[in-house]
Design goal:
With 160 residues, this protein is an all-alpha fold. It is built from 2 helices and no strands.
């Protein structure tokens, strides 16, 4: 009967799984960073929208406050630059995330190859174990049959 199942490439499998887990953490970090950038763009856009509304209210007032209008205009320009810069950074982050996901996909494929090999070897081991067990069971049956034939029909005893 075959011994306990041992996969000879277990160390390789373990290293590949660790590499995949590490890459999953990298991808998760990149996704968090992308979400942070997108949230920043959203907040700046909301602030810009609020500033546009505030500027309209200022223009509807009875007296024009030119310094206030200039400050609002300067702030809106600054917000627009922030939005553009952050969006450019987010686009670069999106490309980086795509590269990291591709690395993760490659590591996953490499791990899957090893796991399929392990599964095939496990099935082969199990089949051999079942075959060996069947041979052993057949041998016991044959010995009992021979003993019964030699000792006679009334001497069937398992305690001998």
């Amino acid at each position: 009967m075959p011994g306990r199942f041992r996969f000879r490439l277990e160390a390789v499998r373990r290293v590949r799984r660790q590499a995949q887990d590490a890459q999953q953490r990298v991808v998760a970090g990149e996704q968090r960073e992308l979400l942070r950038l997108e949230e920043n763009v959203r907040q700046c856009t909301e602030q810009l929208r609020a500033q546009v509304q505030a500027g309209r209210r200022t223009l509807l007032g009875t007296a024009l406050d030119v310094p206030l209008l200039r400050r609002q205009q300067f702030y809106r320009g600054w917000l627009q630059r922030q939005i553009l810069e952050t969006q450019a950074t987010a686009d670069a982050q999106q490309a980086k995330l795509a590269r990291e996901r591709e690395k993760l996909a490659e590591l996953s494929r490499r791990l899957k190859v090893i796991e399929k090999l392990r599964e095939k070897q496990w099935l082969r081991h199990r089949t051999e174990a079942q075959r060996a067990e069947q041979v052993e069971t057949n041998e016991i049956g044959n010995q009992m049959y021979v003993r019964q034939r030699v000792e006679g029909p009334g001497s069937l005893s398992l305690g001998d």
